[in-house]
Amino acid sequence: MPSVAVPEPPVQAPIANQVAEVFAAQRARALELRAAAYPERKARLAQLARLVSTHEAEILQAVYDDFRKPPAETAVTEVMPVRLTLRHAQARLRAWMRPRRVPTPLTYVGTRGWVRPEPKGVTLIISPWNYPFMLLFEPLVSALAAGNTAMLKPSELTPHLSALVARLIPQYFPAAEVAVFEGGPEVAQALLAQPFDHIFFTGSPAVGKIVMQAAAQHLSSVTLELGGKSPVVVDRSAPLAHTARKIVWGKFVNNGQSCVAPDYVLVPPDLLQPLVDELQKALNEYYNPDGQGFAASPSLARVINARHYQRLLHLLQQAQQQGARVVCGGQTQPEELYLAPTLLTHVRPDMAVLQEEIFGPILPLLTYQSREEALAIINDRPKPLSLYVFSRDQAATDYWVQHTSAGGTTVNDTLIHFAHEHLPFGGAGHSGLGRAHGQAGFEAFSNLRPVLRQRVGYTNFQALYPPYGPHTFRLLGWMKKWFA
Ligand code: NAD
């Protein structure tokens, strides 16, 4: 029998080569896109919107497969915010792109100045696992609105969603415009070796530092959306039933794995028990309406993986050994990565559960005797991503806001400042650098280029040009008197 040549399986180029190839293609395309007018940018947003609306069911399924996140919760907390962001960007794009005239100071009479938002160029978006769809697509909307190309690195901890995105994006965009690289830190490192024009990273402060170091090699600009311990201050005037319902929703949505989730609660001592009672009531209402127990709730996601599950159990056990009391929850089903929504009292600020970001369904409640004591606990820690105040009293609310610092704040609710179309979102200090969402996101991905046009043949103050002489000082004296 004649021998048949068996084709060699295609050899996968090492990841660094693949990255370099796509980067070169995107760089060439970014130069073309620089001059792209409004209709072209709008068309790319419409293309992204088509992807989202066509594949919504697959997105919900993939996130469910990753950590049993209820499809309704993915629809509410991931797909809907991205749809709203897209609609907002499409409606505002023309205004955002428009060069913005600036006033002309007297010393510049005769000139015209404006700020022209232009695309940064080739951008990198690295996202975490906890809102795997939303935290990849929100910055992508901003990147495309601003006229950039984008290389995406979704989290390896949500493999179903990552694989889906890696399959869908090439159906809607050429790799020279948007490309997806699946994988873990090694793939992220290969990407970070390239001289991106902007890097948008969402994840932990520890990896944020690595990203910033890598960006420094190329002086790439960065947006860092990081995490931290977001406190809830329950003021003496707080309406407790309302407060508890909002805390429970904000804490246990996504099973406590939200960057802006309430991390710990500060409450006056005499309000602790009434608040705990209300929290339990709200927990039962949301996650145990038919008395089958929290574990049976179809509305509770699971912990992302065994490593995080062990970390959470360890935090809980350590706190209990040091005197903390579980007043609700605490039950576990390790094979399901299930930890019941858990309320902890008798905690102290030095316990690990009050030191590191919890990022799971454990809520410690601390009491404070005086405002100063509460402020010391908040301000002893790095600046949080969010801080929540519950109060009926405007003066008290102002006090808590003025004496603390945080990336953002919602008063009398939790989380919702995140998705407000007109509010910029971001961290402060340890919880992040830069602002995202809406116009702020567009500007993060844009170079706000000042342009000044002089009239030909005109010089504003000829006497300030060389050769210098006494006339120079005479003019300066006149300028000091009238302008400076
Ligand atoms: P992470 O920092 O472990 O991972 C984030 C991304 O970085 C992933 O894509 C991962 O593959 C990549 N990565 C991991 N190690 C890397 C390395 N050495 N070099 C380069 N890249 C690397 O974060 P996570 O566990 O996925 O997410 C949880 C954290 O993200 C929490 O701290 C949370 O508060 C924060 N977060 C912040 C926001 C925000 O908007 N500010 C939103 C969601 C999550």
Task: Describe it.
The protein is 43% helix and 17% strand. It is of the alpha/beta class and 484 residues long. A seven-stranded mixed sheet has the order 10-13-14-9-8-15-16, sandwiched between helices. Strand 4 (149-153), helix 6 (159-172) and strand 5 form a beta-alpha-beta unit. Helix 5 (134-145) packs across helix 14 (438-444) and helix 9 (240-252) packs across helix 10 (269-287). The mean pLDDT is 96. Nicotinamide-adenine-dinucleotide binds next to helix 7 and helix 8.
End-to-end span in angstroms?
96 Å
Question: What is the domain tally?
Answer: 2
Largest sheet: 7 strands, mixed
The CATH topology label of the largest domain is: Aldehyde Dehydrogenase, Chain A, domain 1
Fourth-level CATH superfamily of the largest domain: Aldehyde Dehydrogenase, Chain A, domain 1
| Uncertain ranges | none
Strand content: 15-25%
Structural class: alpha/beta
- Helicity, as a percent range: 40-55%
